[in-house]
Amino acid sequence: xxxxxxxxxxxxxxxxxxxxxxxxxxxxxxxxxxxxxxxxxxxxxxxxxxxxxxxxxxxxxxxxxxxxxxxxxxxxxxxxxxxxxxxxxxxxxxxxxxxxxxxxxxxxxxxxxxxxxxxxxxxxxxxxxxxxxxxxxxxxxxxxxxxxxxxxxxxxxxxxxxxxxxxxxxxxxxxxxxxxxxxxxxxxxxxxxxxxxxxxxxxxxxxxxxxxxxxxxxxxxxxxxxxxxxxxxxxxxxxxxxxxxxxxxxxxxxxx
Length: 256
What we know:
The mean pLDDT is 86. The protein has no helices and 15 strands. A hairpin with a 7-residue loop joins strand 11 and strand 12. The chain is mainly beta. The chain has a twelve-stranded antiparallel barrel. The protein has a single domain (3-254), classed as Porin. It starts with a strand and ends with a strand.
């Protein structure tokens, strides 16, 4: 068995402006995506991300492990990944596990992801009470619930202008969190441009019956440190919902 130590990696910083499916606030992301070694055509990787939100200086993070297979007989790359996701809220934290599959190529990509909350799945946020005559009252308690679900995306190269590649992605998602809410189905559209593998610009639009229409713009700078890889698509960014999805719900208590 021969293991090749390559230490190929890339750093990126991204600015996410606008409301996303995971958050109504803008945030900034730092990411390191590393391939420390490879064995034949198998490339294990480590993906580390940290996100800082504009509102309330809250944080989120992701730690991912996986591998990509770059076969000699074709241009497609197969990938599998597992993630631990963390989200800091005002009254506590959410934690989540995720599994993903990728099929990557020069002109076509397919991605499938799943999300499973672990630990505490409901956080108390606030309460208010309304009093009436004769000692009657109504108590409202607001909670934040983390949701579990799946999503998929089909992405294609629709044009190339000089050193700029333009991609269009269409996907869908499903989330469900507790017995008090309807299942959540939605659609996601993404238009992306990659300038010379260093600058990235994306516009993402999601729509569902709960969060309605949300549009987010993302601009990023990537610094690659790659050398020996012969697979030009090996270092594509992992596309998944990087923020734990949560939903606010209220509970009512009364004595009449």
